[in-house]
Design goal:
The protein is an alpha/beta fold.
């Protein structure tokens, strides 16, 4: 399979290693700073799928450019989700393919499933309050993380006493607090904690490196190249 990388930072380089180890070819490395390559340099046209890890400011424009070439897109960029309805519309009305995940780690997606299950149980246990903490490296631009927002949205969907999430500090009892910490080179830590007067229940995921995210992104690219529409980890992992 021929893969175009959009964004060639630490994550892009890790994806490249995993993709090549699985027998895939990198035909473009589009990054105006790291490589100077653009969509028009020729390599992108030959790609079977694009994997995009950039920044919230440029992500949506990158997606639209991929759609101009009718290329399936796999993206792990967060912080742009206000444009998500437009992406879904392009998939349903224009026949485009877009695979999005706030986190491509298989372990994190298992955490998502556990979180949904536990939050359904906790809906009737109002003696427990719930809060979240996420920790990432200092280069991460958005807070809270896309993974934390995904966890929070599932909690809010299942626990009636929580209505919206708030960053770092609650304004009312119905707020779900997400504490965001930026320190060192932490790849990603996410914790959901339920606490009562008598005990505490915690589910927790700590990434050891970027390799898990990179492998998930390459697996998603393999899946997106063979499927159509708006896709996600639930589709690929068959949860």
């Amino acid at each position: 399979m021929k893969i175009a990388l959009i964004g060639y930072g630490k994550m892009g380089k890790e994806i490249e290693k995993i993709a090549q180890s699985r027998g895939h070819e990198i035909v473009a490395r589009i990054d105006p700073i790291a490589t100077g390559e653009s969509f028009e340099d020729g390599g992108f046209e030959t790609a079977d799928v694009a994997i995009e890890f950039t920044t919230p400011k440029v992500a949506f424009a990158n997606y639209r450019k991929c759609f101009e070439y009718n290329k399936p897109v796999v993206s792990g960029t967060t912080g742009w989700l206000d444009k998500l309805p437009e992406i879904k519309k392009a998939c349903s009305e224009e026949g485009q393919t877009f695979f999005y995940a706030s986190n491509f780690s298989v372990g994190v997606n298992i955490l998502f499933e556990l979180n949904r299950y536990l939050s359904r149980i906790m809906n009737d246990r109002d003696e427990y309050d719930v809060e979240m903490t996420e920790v990432h490296h200092t280069q991460k631009l958005d807070a809270p993380s896309g993974t934390a927002i995904s966890l929070a949205e599932d909690i809010i969907e299942n626990i009636e006493r929580k209505k919206q999430w708030k960053l770092n500090k609650a304004e009312k009892d119905t707020d779900l607090v997400i504490k965001a910490v930026r320190e060192g080179q932490v790849p990603g830590i996410h914790t959901v904690k339920y606490e009562s007067d008598v005990d505490e229940i915690t589910i927790h995921h700590s990434a050891k490196s970027r390799k898990g995210f990179a492998l998930g992104a390459v697996l998603a690219a393999e899946f997106a190249a063979k499927n159509k529409g708006f896709l996600g980890m639930k589709d690929m992992l068959k949860f």
